[in-house]
Amino acid sequence: MPISRLRRSARMLPLCVVLALLPLLTSAQTYRWGACPSPKVQPNFNLQQYLGKWYEIAKLPARFERGKCIEANYAIRPDGTIRVLNSQFYKDKVRTAEGTAVVHDPREPARIGVSFSYFTPYSPYWILSTDYSSVAVVYSCTDILRIFHVEYAWILGRSRFLPDETVRYAQDLLLAEGVDLFRMTTTVQTGCEDK
Fold this sequence. Notes:
Strand order of the largest sheet: 2-3-4-5-6-7-8-9
Structural class: alpha+beta
Number of helices: 3
Distance between the termini: 67 Å
Number of strands: 10
Strand content: 35-45%
Largest sheet: 8 strands, antiparallel, barrel
């Protein structure tokens, strides 16, 4: 085999690997071609007001969220990081995941990084909009070799249910930022036990 053909084959290998893994990577997520967008985030974001319990109202598919009664609780730790405690009811039991969030740049406090393992980098968790008392719109995106990206979006509420017009407002905001909501699903928040 000529050297030039071997080089061409070697250059094609990463693309072939990505295309082979694409069904596995995207089966429970939303992917799009190209690099991640950079949507506008909440101006003058106040982390202290954002802390506390939020219920998931709707989301783009996420492999780590398959249950119902999904909620997240945010609290400041003594070291200044943010404790993230997510819970969901899945396969007949409550399952929790604890993570850490950090504000990387104090000039942009609505662009938070979240990690649920010491071995993984911080993933973007960007608060696009919130009124702190009823609704929050959150977006996350991760580039895969700059060929495509995996994106997540959440509509969160301070109560388990939001008025339809509030959900529409949140969806319109995501659409205005170029987020495709075709795969967005409503999270089941019925039959949940409040603690």
